[in-house]
Amino acid sequence: MTQNNERLISALEVAYRTGLHPATIYRKASRGEIPGLVKLGKTVRFKESAVQKWLQATNGEENSK
Predict the structure, then answer these.
(1) 24 pLDDT exceeds 60?
(2) Share of the chain above pLDDT 90, in %
(3) In percent, how much of the chain has pLDDT > 70?
(4) Which of 57, 42, 41, 51 has the alpha carbon at shortest distance from 8?
(5) H helix intervals, 1-65
(6) What is the spatial distance between Cα 10 and Cα 37, in angstroms, rounded to a whole number?
(7) Quick one: which of 13, 28, 26, 21 has its CA closest to 58?
């Protein structure tokens, strides 16, 4: 059996990295606008690699406008 050592980060960490309010992070995640959402019981975390890729793609879109 293989273990996945994916680093999970909190919505607060995603908010810090994006400059958005944590409530906005939760709202966007629930709409599927932020990838990597992982629910652990009542706790919500995000796959760091998915968030990083999403941020790079989002920044690329903003720079091309």
Answers:
(1) yes
(2) 78
(3) 86
(4) 51
(5) 11-18, 22-30, 48-63
(6) 10
(7) 28
